[in-house]
Amino acid sequence: MILAIDTSCDDSAVAILDDAGQVRADVVLTQHEAHRPYGGVVPEISSRQHLARIAAATCQAFETSGLHPRDIKAVAATFAPGLIGSLLVGVQFAKGFAQARSLPFIGVHHIEGHLMAGAGNTEFPQAPFIALIVSGGHSALYACEANFQFITLGETRDDAAGEAFDKVGRLLGLSYPAGRVIDELAQLGDEKRFIFPIALKNSTTLDYSFSGLKTAARLKIEELRREQGEIKEQALWDFCAGFRYAVVHTLLAKVKLACQRRDAKHLVLGGGVVANSLLREKALELGKEIGVSVHIPPKNHCVDNAVMIARAARQRLDAGFKSELSLGVFASRPIDCEKNI
Ligand code: KG4
Ligand code: ZN
């Protein structure tokens, strides 16, 4: 049994995974209410909330699973990247648990966790594969060459895709985090009414950029407000549909390029934005078009959770890795250097 913790951002997540890969507990205490008045995550509020809740979240994991701390054989926690104060709470709690019970401790890179979120499915591929990780903090393409060997193929030059959803949602007056809300409103809209730019479309780079799209969205919101006052109903739905279309096509254009360039057989998706229904649908279509198998985690394991951290830790334990209790926390750290933590 692995006890895993993720406190990298605004969710206190604790999970227990058993030997057979079955999820025995999957607790996520979100802080959305606390951050909502500010339209984004406030780091100081986040770390204080983790501190107040991490023990309760862990107790809840034991209560719901009927397991006891003595059943745990290893403890894992996200050590990078993320909000430094928030990471520290989860890592120190995990180290304390491990030390008190003389158990191995495994530090997991948050992106490696997102990459492994779909590993509960028996069809999850062995390396090599291409991975797209899109969340509130990251938008990047990786080549996973072998277990624990990642090459960053491209990443965002400015905002992450989830950040663009959240910021545009805020301009529209939608509640934080806005990605899911925009996705739902977009289902009712016409994606062809408002056409937004697809950045770096004709460039050979595998990088992303969302700041131009964000500016185009802001200008369109201002124009609509001047013309018709509050943006609501059909105009809002069409706006959301057009915006979602642009984000999804921006993401998948580079995925296609990366898969073709590296002659990939498998594509793995992860991160909160992968909960987006259009991205899920279009990624599967793209896979069929270019002959690549596409692996998408269940929606609740796209957004931050600790099951994905447990799955990544299991792979590391199986390979004989464990971390020192002296392992620090890092606000940013490339995944390319995670071979031996
Ligand atoms: O992976 P995650 O939970 O946290 C980070 O590691 O950042 O991702 C959160 C992000 C937020 O920006 C949220 O708006 C976005 O994922 N998100 C979505 C959807 N559900 C969550 N974006 C688009 N469509 C969704 N359905
Ligand atoms: Zn995340």
What do you see in this structure?
The structure is a single chain. The protein is α/β, with parallel strands linked by helices and 341 residues long. It is built from 10 helices and 10 strands. The strands form 2 sheets. The chain has a 5-stranded mixed β-sheet, sandwiched between helices. A 5-stranded mixed β-sheet has the order 8-7-6-9-10. A hairpin with a 2-residue loop joins β7 (139-146) and β8. The mean pLDDT is 95. Bound molecules: 5'-O-[(R)-(carboxyoxy)(hydroxy)phosphoryl]adenosine and zinc ion. 5'-O-[(R)-(carboxyoxy)(hydroxy)phosphoryl]adenosine (KG4) binds at residues 9, 135-137, 162, 165-166, 177-180, 183, 271-273, 275-276, 303-304.
Task: Please write out the topology.
Layout: E1 2-6, E2 11-17, E3 23-30, H1 32-35, H2 43-65, E4 74-80, H3 84-100, E5 105-109, H4 110-115, E6 129-134, E7 139-146, E8 149-155, H5 161-171, H6 179-186, H7 211-228, H8 233-261, E9 266-270, H9 277-290, E10 293-295, H10 307-318
Parallel strand pairs: 1-4, 4-5, 6-9, 9-10
Antiparallel strand pairs: 1-2, 2-3, 6-7, 7-8
Helix pairs in contact: 2-3, 5-7, 6-8, 8-9
The structure holds 5'-O-[(R)-(carboxyoxy)(hydroxy)phosphoryl]adenosine and zinc ion.
Supply the key terms.
341 residues; 5-stranded mixed β-sheet; 10 helices; globular; binds 5'-O-[(R)-(carboxyoxy)(hydroxy)phosphoryl]adenosine; binds zinc ion
Detail the poorly predicted runs: none
Strand order of the main beta sheet, please?
A: 3-2-1-4-5
The quaternary organization reads as single chain
| Estimated structural class | alpha/beta
Which ions and ligands are bound to the chains?
5'-O-[(R)-(carboxyoxy)(hydroxy)phosphoryl]adenosine, zinc ion
Number of helices: 10
Distance between the termini: 21 Å
Overall residue-averaged pLDDT value = 95
What is the share of helical residues? 40-55%
Strand content: 15-25%
Largest sheet: 5 strands, mixed
Count of extended strands: 10
Using the alpha-carbon principal axes, give the shape. Answer: globular
Order of helices and strands: EEEHHEHEHEEEHHHHEHEH
